[in-house]
Amino acid sequence: MRVAPVTAVVGTSPAVETPAEATARPSAGRAAYRLDHLDHLEAEAIHVVREVAGQFERPVILFSGGKDSVVMLHLAVKAFAPSPLPFALLHVDTGHNFPELLDYRDATVARLGVRLVVASVQDYIDDGRLRERPDGTRNPLQTVPLLDAISGNRFDAVLGGGRRDEEKARAKERVFSIRDAFGAWDPRRQRPELWDLYNGRHAPGEHVRVFPLSNWTEVDVWRYVERERIELPDLYYAHEREVFLRDGMWLTAGEWGGPRAGETPEVRTVRYRTVGDMSCTGAVDSDALTVADVVLEVAGSRLTERGATRADDRLSEAAMEDRKKEGYF
């Protein structure tokens, strides 16, 4: 590297930077290593995923085709590239899932060449281990098939896409969340995670739920989708759909039991902010056709996606926490 010669002026001393001035002066090297908000979140999530690979023997990723699980899978693939993903995928199929999500799930599994384990709620209903609920929703019925799949496959770490901004029970959960031999979550057993140090130790029969997206928000997820050009199922964008109004939410008609008498279907332009069982996931009126449109729409919302569109979280004030204590996601 060439250095320009310093020309001394008679009667003066050459200017010398003090350490403080050198530190304050911007440098090309420091600018090149500066991370923005999404870079920090990505690095943190990849660190968590790699910690799971280092501490556990049989990890699995919960994958439904929803936006959070898609982003988490993208991060996991990125964490080990160019090597293949060392984790299997697990999906609890309620039998009332949106067909678009199942198609997306299967296409993603085929593209990545990973193993998919499917736990079917319908199988449990057919053989009498579970019963249909009077309201038709099957989201709360996922717990038993989930726990059976975890124990049957001896998964010791289960990565989920839960975020702390979604719901107050999830806001209390650590990144590494210990579950007992019955799959139950006890808030009092949460471990400190100082300096991003994660403790995955657990007794035989226990397992750990891991949430790499804990510190992300819904806007962060969509901005990351935009930056990484991640493809999502079409129902996350505005489209015409036949829906009916129930309890202030636009639900999709289906075999699960809707609409009831007095609930009139109509065609509206809607999209889904979160996607679960058709019986409890509401659509929102929207004209957001692109990721950029969705980012603007979500940034202006005063309700989280679960608070706005998930009927299963309205069953009681502590509906989510009660389900988590039983072993739910």
Automatic annotation (TrEMBL):
One of its GO terms (biological process) is sulfate assimilation. The keyword ATP-binding applies. SUPFAM superfamilies: Adenine nucleotide alpha hydrolases-like. Residues 59-282 form the Phosphoadenosine phosphosulphate reductase domain. Its EC number is 2.7.7.4. It comes from the Bacteria. GO terms for molecular function: ATP binding; sulfate adenylyltransferase (ATP) activity. It is an enzyme of class 2 (transferase). Coiled coil: none annotated. Keywords: ATP-binding, Nucleotide-binding, Nucleotidyltransferase, Transferase. It holds the Pfam family PAPS_reduct. Gene3D superfamilies: HUPs. InterPro entries: PAPS_reduct_dom (IPR002500), Rossmann-like_a/b/a_fold (IPR014729), SO4_adenylTrfase_ssu (IPR011784), Sulfate_adenylyltrnsfr_sub2 (IPR050128). Belongs to the PAPS reductase family. CysD subfamily. This is Sulfate adenylyltransferase subunit 2. It comes from Candidatus Phosphoribacter hodrii.
